[in-house]
């Protein structure tokens, strides 16, 4: 077993054990904190697929996170009021249906954004994904039907068959299982022929093209897959906070997602989990010390980028094998 | 819709375009010469506005404030370049994005620390208060016309600086081949610091100028930074000419879109819905324009020959 695998297993066990212990001690707050970690890790895992494996620095993944969130919020609002959404289609408060809608909507939007953005590369790609996310953001702000700038509340957390989702531990377990499934999916993709082509396209586009693989379609597929995972996290995030607002779509969110990936370690299987855990821990520890915790976060982030290459997992699990 | 109103909106668009150009020129210059994507450019805009507001409140003179905004933004830019940015030139864009994102957090929270969360206000100097009569019967504030004039002056100044002076020659040489110009004995590190400070000063200037028409607050640089990204992506990253045309295109499209689109949509839909659709569509218009430009020319209207 490699050192990285050991660290990964430790992370997975710790993320499960901590909320179980907190729950046994009656500290529901820490269960919610762990849920937040699991959801942010899932969102970052989605981004890691595009960024880590494909080298696609998307600065617009907040768009997909927010689309997932709004899918949950809008469906729940209609499911609650009983009014149809469009053309007589009803809303729903069932999580599995909401997840499907979130994933499908994000896939369609990602296909459109990706098809245009992936014509470019490098800095252009960064800025264009950012601009498209802003476009979605401004749309949400200026469209008053679902709260506009004020956001939309989800009155009661959506339901999952056979579980009371209002119990914090139950909701955590739902998120945790989804996270583990997504991590397994990520590992499968990384080891597949598709994953090999995607990583090869990152390392040397011309060689990949020379052996007869078109990088564009591979990248577009990865971008869409990546967006769907992040959107699923967005839907869960809306249910966690029981609130959706344009801030889920803001470019700060896109930046934070990149930060999570980098803090943990780019392209690593458990990088997003380590990054999300570290980020939420910072937020919690520094936030209780000073109102200006983002100042300290900025300094830490700057230090990480300038001096610690390879992220947290790079520190504990050694250098990544792949370039 | 009267002629005067349309003219007023057109001037507003021009004013926005000119301000965007001041920001975008620095951004595109820094990218063109150093190959660096600087998200913290909006923070320097904010630094300029805060320096102007603080000095103007202290001395009572807007003009001293304006000078302070140039000086502070340039100094902040130079320090940031020396301490942080310098280490990023050889890194990939991802590291640059992250480090400058961290700088935004530091600048924003640092400013909130120093000045508090409440917005500051800047008064328009007495010389530029009041309005002029527009042909067609409308009135237009002198201050906004002055902004347009300053922007035009800066554009001419930059053109002369880049095209006609020794410093400009070095900047252009740095754009085309940084190793060669270093080999020819130009101190490339100092040149980079100077270019970064110049870009920062322009951002600070536009922050101070806009600060007097709006409020001066933390986070004010971010919306305009993203508009500037749209500008330089449309114009072609690294091209000052592209930045100028892109800025005017975005400024005028955005302002005229917000003015005309709701009226156009009102012809098709009932008023209540038209307001909603018009507002939503016009706030997305420039991104649609950007997507269209990129669909035809993926590297912008004036892509630099190299890179």
UniProtKB/TrEMBL annotation, chain A:
Which cellular component appears as one GO term in the record?
plasma membrane
The GO terms this record gives for MF are: branched-chain amino acid transmembrane transporter activity
On whether Endoplasmic reticulum is a keyword of this UniProt record, the answer is: no
Record keywords: Cell membrane, Membrane, Transmembrane, Transmembrane helix
Residue intervals passing through the bilayer: 36-56, 63-81, 93-116, 123-146, 166-189, 220-238, 258-280, 292-317
Compartmental location: Cell membrane
**Topologically, how does it sit relative to the membrane?**
Multi-pass membrane protein
Does S-adenosyl-L-methionine appear among the keywords?
no
Q: InterPro entries annotated for this entry?
A: ABC_transp_permease, LivM-like
Instruction: List the Pfam families hit by this protein, alphabetically.
Output: BPD_transp_2
This protein is called: Branched-chain amino acid ABC transporter permease
Q: Which organism is it from?
A: Rhizobium deserti
Automatic annotation (TrEMBL), chain B:
State the compartments where it is located. Cell membrane
Task: Report the InterPro entries cross-referenced here.
Answer: ABC_transp_permease (IPR001851), BCAA_transport_permease (IPR052157)
As for membrane topology, the entry says:
Multi-pass membrane protein
Transmembrane found in the keyword field: yes
Keywords of the record: Amino-acid transport, Cell membrane, Membrane, Transmembrane, Transmembrane helix, Transport
Q: Which family does it belong to?
A: Belongs to the binding-protein-dependent transport system permease family. LivHM subfamily.
Tell me what this protein is called.
Branched-chain amino acid ABC transporter permease
| Source organism | Rhizobium deserti
Q: What is the lineage of its organism?
A: Bacteria, Pseudomonadati, Pseudomonadota, Alphaproteobacteria, Hyphomicrobiales
